[in-house]
Design brief:
The chain is α+β, with helices and mostly antiparallel strands. It has one domain. 14% of the residues lie in helices and 29% in strands. The protein has helices at residues 48-65, 152-156, 167-170, 288-296, 312-318, 371-376, 399-407, and strands at residues 5-7, 14-15, 20-21, 36-47, 74-83, 94-97, 107-109, 131-136, 148-151, 184-188, 205-211, 217-221, 231-235, 241-245, 253-261, 267-271, 307-310, 322-337, 352-365. Strands 1, 4, 5, 8, 9, 10, 15, 16, 18 and 19 form a 10-stranded mixed beta sheet that branches. A hairpin with a 4-residue loop joins strand 2 (14-15) and strand 3 (20-21). The model is unreliable at 1-26, 55-70, 377-398 and 404-412 (pLDDT under 50). Residues 371-399 are annotated as: Disordered.
């Protein structure tokens, strides 16, 4: 058995666009890109996130609010394998062999997606109407310069409001494995299997990834899924709303946002960040090092913070359908073979690297049942239900760009 070494997240970063591993900061160690890269993103979803993310969509989530449907935390896994090699023979094939406690059988297939050329053309229609009102920061009243108002009809003409900070694009994105930056690529979940991650699934134990286009990858995980995040939302005098949540020991930071819409086409978007930071990496899994940087920039709330006040103007603009969401970012584990040499003078040539990230997230109606109530309601009738389908991948880009595209009906 090959000896594995867990690398510390703070010791280095990976620039995978060019398949080059950067040396640890402060050293002159030479490092070459690995043959294979593997990532596991593990999540715990609660509240309406468990309903919508579990395959039921927003209709199922609304059903839960009205007193019906499954109401328990769910787990999600996103597995990605990228390699600089072509398959040794035949079509690409790879599998992730998991511990029995994962509840997914002996393995799940990492399927190489088929590339289907797109011939999407803009669909003519009515000129978009309505506005997006953007707020940010914790506090009973909005800060200076708020709200930023985006008129969709003007945006369709190419007119953006002055001074708009497209922060979803400006927040640094951590390295990702994609088909576009890999010679051969495979992922799960996919259309080849209908397996879902059980609510009692555990990741603890030995993991092995084997395929015909990458070296064997093997490591042992000693960090399991994060606990569910729960909380409450209560309105205070003046119309502001205080959201609060349970402190998770594994959490490295928190980020909250809310979104609502009125019947006249107006929408409101709020984020807990002290600056205009919407979408992008903050909606993804993030390493502890990245979270620390964003805490320093006051984009992410520190792990010691367990409450945030949503301004009254946001709840007023959101109307009766104001949806809240909360992310708790978790730890990260890194593995490599062979391990990085302790002597910086020795060049490092890893065959593979692997990264495991964790998070917990929840969703709730800001002016409806609070998160704690939603999670504490047990529904015995659901015990025999079929497990909900694995969450579908979001193909829309994050940040204001994706939001505006969807709002104006031009896709993501």
């Amino acid at each position: 058995m090959r000896k594995l070494l867990t690398s510390r997240p703070a010791r280095g970063a990976f620039l995978l666009a060019s398949f080059t591993l950067l040396a640890a900061p402060g050293t002159s160690q030479q490092a070459s890109g690995p043959i294979a890269r593997y990532t596991i993103d593990a999540g715990t979803m609660s509240g309406m996130a468990a309903m919508a993310g579990g395959g039921g969509g927003m209709g199922a989530a609304m059903g839960m609010i009205m007193g019906g449907g499954r109401n328990q935390p769910l787990h999600e896994l996103v597995l990605r394998l990228g390699s600089t090699r072509a398959p040794t023979s035949g079509a690409p094939a790879a599998d992730h062999f998991l511990p029995a406690t994962a509840g997914l059988g002996a393995s799940v297939p990492l399927v190489t997606p088929r590339v289907i050329p797109s011939d999407d053309q803009p669909i003519p229609g009515e000129r978009p109407r309505g506005r997006l009102l953007i707020y940010w920061g914790c506090g009973a009243t909005p800060g200076p310069g708020q709200p930023v108002v985006i008129d969709f009809a003007k945006v369709a003409k190419g007119q953006m409001p002055p001074g708009l900070y497209m922060s979803g694009a400006s927040i640094p994105q951590e390295w990702q494995i994609r088909a576009s930056n890999s010679k051969t690529y495979g992922d799960w979940p996919n259309g080849q299997t209908r397996k879902t991650v059980p609510a009692n699934s555990s990741l603890l134990g030995d993991h092995r990834i084997a395929g015909n286009y990458s070296p064997d990858i093997a490591f042992t995980l000693r960090q399991d899924f994060m606990p569910a995040i729960t909380g409450a939302a209560r309105q205070i005098a003046g119309g502001a709303t205080i959201i609060s949540w349970n402190s998770l020991p594994q959490a490295t930071g928190y980020y909250a946002w809310a979104f609502g819409a009125q019947g006249n086409g107006d929408m409101v978007w709020w984020a807990s960040s002290a600056t205009q930071a919407f979408g992008g990496p903050v909606w993804d899994w993030m390493s502890p090092a990245a979270v620390q940087k964003m805490i320093a920039q006051k984009i992410v709330m520190p792990p010691s913070q367990t409450s945030c006040t949503v301004p009254a103007a946001v709840t007023q603009a959101g109307g009766e359908m104001l949806m809240g969401s909360l992310y708790a970012y978790g730890p990260e584990a890194n593995f490599a073979y062979p391990p990085r040499p302790a002597d910086p003078k020795i060049a490092w040539k890893p065959e593979w690297i692997a990264r495991v990230r964790y998070r917990a997230n929840t969703m709730w109606m800001l002016n409806g049942p609070d998160m704690g109530d939603m999670m504490s309601q047990a529904d015995d009738a659901d015990e025999g239900d079929e497990p909900a389908p694995q969450p579908k991948k979001n193909k829309c880009r994050g940040g204001l760009g994706g939001m505006l595209g969807g709002a104006m009906g031009v896709g993501c």
